[in-house]
Amino acid sequence: MRRWLWLVCLLLLTGCDDGLYSGTLIFNGDHTFMPGTRLPGDVFVRAGTAEFAPGSRVAGSIYMLGGSLAVNGTIDGDLALLGGRLVLGPQAEVGGDLRLGGGEIEQAATAVIHGQVVSGNGVELPLDTLAQGQSGDDTLRALSAALLLAGFGALLARRQSRPLITLGQTAVEQPLVSAALGLLLLLVLPALLVMMAFTVILIPLVIVLGLLLLLLLGYGLTAVGYQLGTWLSHKLNRPVTPAWAAFIGSVVLLMSFELPYLGGGLLAGTAVLLLGAMLLTRLGLRPYTPDPAITGAADPASYARRPQKDVS
Amino acid sequence: MDLICYLRARNWPAAAGYGLFIGMMAVGYFYNVTFIQLGLVDLGMRGLAMSRAAVAAHMAVLALVTAVTALITGWGMQRSGWSTRLERKLQLALAVVVVQTGLTAVAPHIPHPTALLGWILICSLALGVGVPATFSLTTDLIPVRDRGYVAAAITAVAYFLAAVFAGSWQIEALSRLLLRLMLPGTAVLAAIVLLAASGRTFVARWVWELGQNQREARFSHGRFLRRAGGHPRRRYWGFVALMFGIFFIDSLGFLRIIDTPILVDGAWQATALTPRLTIGAAHVAAALVAGVLYTHLNERHLFFWVFGIFALTHLTYTFRVWLLPETTSLSLGAPTLYATAVSLYTVLNFALWADFSTPQTISRNTAVGVALSGWAATFISTALAIQWQSSGLALETHLRAVNALAQVFLLLLLGAALWPHPAKERL
Fold first, then answer.
1. Is position B103 within any domain?
2. pLDDT per residue over A218-258, tens digit each?
3. Which ipTM was obtained for this model?
4. Do the Cβ atoms of B297 and A194 come within 8 Å?
5. pTM above 0.90, yes or no
6. For testing contact with chain A, the best of B3, B294, B310, B324 (most A CBs within 10 A)
7. pLDDT tens digit string along A256-277?
8. Domain range spanning residue B165?
9. What is the CB-side half-sphere exposure of residue A56 using CA atoms within 13 A?
10. Is the Cβ–Cβ distance between B259 and B317 less than 8 Å?
């Protein structure tokens, strides 16, 4: 129960104004943002009219799906236009890109666009928060992340090794069903998260779920790392404690993701397997045993052709 | 997988049985999802200038007659013992294929609505006989352990063909395409049936060997009959209801989506090949995933996934209609999700009924299952979708209704899953 309370607290924190994420949604009516007004996050305009007077500021991006918008202030992020009418006044300043996917635009000659003007209908939703921190692909950063995760794995293996073993064994020994479930989840999750982000009000939950997924992926990687470490210790004939097996295996596994060309595919394959295995074993808390009547081995002799004498 | 064991044991007749079954069922299903579901609507509305309501009424007749004929045929096959006779089932299948080939050839030349009604009645009778005759081949040709994979292969082939090659969905083009597939298929099936009846040919030996398969437990005793402590009959009717819900939701939503140019022009009816190939690939991948999951998991989990993905898909479409301007074309995310859900449940439909049956009961069980949940639901919902559209129901409201239905089924399933069970099943 306590862990759920923590989760709720985290969710509430992310929803606070000026917290991890905040935004403004305009669905109808007329709105004027006077000089000195500062909106902390992104602005979504679906319908109605909005005007940003000179001296007003939007700290995030503006996504326009309909209605009418007049900008004479400063937008720190992007300005995306998919529908409706947009007027960029003489004092308008866009810090990011101007993305045009539809609608009408009227732009004053003195309006400033610091980024690029991009044509196309893709809406870039504010999910960048999830991607932050994942961009570092230099070896040192990867090694420190690997060491951190390996330490976490070693701690888990020492204190609660059973779920770790169950999860890792299922991913390794039942790759077909794990991969199938993982693929299905991988198809559904992004769609679900994008849908939730579209509601705007659920964006904080999307961020929490994204973070939760990353945590689960880390947990799963240590489970596979534990299996790898145990296998390595057997192969090298050097017995180690479960904690060391998890540590060494996790470091080897995570560093293998840095291999050129192969690393990305290896990471994707492992993630798919892990997601499926986590569902199958409920995060390693329940072992998965397939029905032996359906998946078990049968007597090879019973598959031979019937003798000719049976024909009559 | 039993097929690999047969190949290792050089048991070519048993292995060839897989090919026969997959070929027949894949072409049959491709025929249903293209010619019957899309072609007839086009024939009525474009070819014969009938109103939406009139086409809806004709589709309802087709549903009713097919379902009733299938029930009578399935029951009759069980009573007469034909359900356990492979040769007889192949003869019935040949008769159905010959009639359908003839109907496919004449369909584009139907001159008026009364002739269409006659065409529909003959087609329904043939389809109604075909359902129990072909589905009941499962206990002769496919062992229980491989039914998920075989269902996946049928689904993958049928939907890939439908997504990539179905073209403009006009009756003339569909008739030409189907005839190219059906004429050689009919010839092969006729050759098999005639040579099997003639006695001493290698084909007769092959058919005889296949006919003996059902004596083995690995063919004859479906997986849902094995589990101790369960209630197969109660579960069977539960699955009939769930499959009815799935077919109903699918057709109710899909018929409206494909009638909305902005939702299909960049997807199922794209002029470029890439979107159609993407959808076809999604069908294939989802079918393979479903085949693996059907074999390894409790079927209840597959139902969860199907209803969940349907709810998510219709939510995606509803959001698109509600939120984005009409000029914005849809990405392939929603059609891909749709293809996934459809492939998942189709695999279930091909494997489920045989796994509740023995060779004696399979014709009746598949007739009830496919006729009530598949045909009846599909065509009733098709008729309802056309009726809603002709009464001026807005696209957004239509999709929201379908989405609400999917969510109701999902919640009911969740409720049933959380209800305390006397014997806990494996995952």
1. yes
2. 999 999 999 999 999 998 888 888 889 989 999 999 888 88
3. 0.81
4. no
5. no
6. B324
7. 888 888 888 999 999 999 999 9
8. 2-418
9. 20
10. no
